[in-house]
């Protein structure tokens, strides 16, 4: 919820595409606040319909359109958020991937998913991630759609520190 709120501000107010959303760029404070960090490769767009063409950021979290060298916009951050939520790891592929094989894998292979029916993941979370991880950027959920998603409404006001302490105590 906090990452989505941060992306709403970046995309809607500042017209900034982060271009490097990944776990190591999401910082957690001792009070449970989540902060987006590392704006070194972010780019400002002149309007909400502008597109980027540059190829910067962490390859394993890049959207397919970025890897293919197509124009991209704010929705590429949604792909990266989805991968961050599933903690996608390129080593999950059947064999170690070299750089070019990794790029092809991201563009050509099926997207990673959270397993529906797994008691660790709610149906709402699975749906939220699925809406982020749509290969066709034109069909991918926007930050406006995601900010109103049932998963976020269900957990509105939940403190991340409380969730983490619950998870630690439950295990």
Automatic annotation (TrEMBL):
Name listed for the protein in its UniProt record: mitogen-activated protein kinase kinase
Record's keyword terms, sorted: ATP-binding, Kinase, Nucleotide-binding, Serine/threonine-protein kinase, Transferase
Organism listed in the record: Haematococcus lacustris
The protein's Enzyme Commission number: 2.7.12.2
Gene3D superfamilies assigned: Transferase(Phosphotransferase) domain 1
Record flagged with keyword Nucleotide-binding: yes
Top-rank taxon: Eukaryota
Stretches assigned to the Protein kinase domain: 1-152
Alphabetized SUPFAM superfamilies for the sequence: Protein kinase-like (PK-like)
EC class: transferase
Family: Belongs to the protein kinase superfamily. STE Ser/Thr protein kinase family. MAP kinase kinase subfamily.
Alphabetized GO MF terms: ATP binding; MAP kinase kinase activity; protein serine/threonine kinase activity
């Amino acid at each position: 919820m906090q990452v989505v709120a941060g992306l709403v501000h970046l995309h809607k107010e500042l017209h900034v595409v982060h271009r490097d959303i990944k776990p190591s760029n999401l910082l957690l404070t001792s009070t449970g606040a989540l902060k987006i960090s590392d704006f070194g490769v972010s780019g400002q767009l002149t309007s909400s319909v502008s597109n980027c063409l540059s190829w910067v950021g962490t390859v394993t979290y890049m959207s397919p359109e970025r890897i293919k060298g197509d124009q991209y916009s704010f929705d590429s951050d949604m792909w990266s958020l989805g991968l961050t939520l599933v903690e996608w790891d390129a080593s999950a592929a059947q064999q170690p991937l070299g750089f070019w094989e990794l790029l092809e894998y991201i563009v050509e292979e099926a997207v990673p998913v959270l397993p529906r029916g797994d008691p660790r993941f709610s149906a709402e979370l699975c749906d939220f991630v699925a809406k982020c991880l749509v290969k066709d950027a034109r069909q991918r959920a926007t930050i406006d759609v995601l900010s109103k998603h049932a998963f976020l409404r269900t957990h509105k006001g939940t403190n991340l520190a409380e969730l983490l302490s619950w998870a630690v105590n439950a295990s």
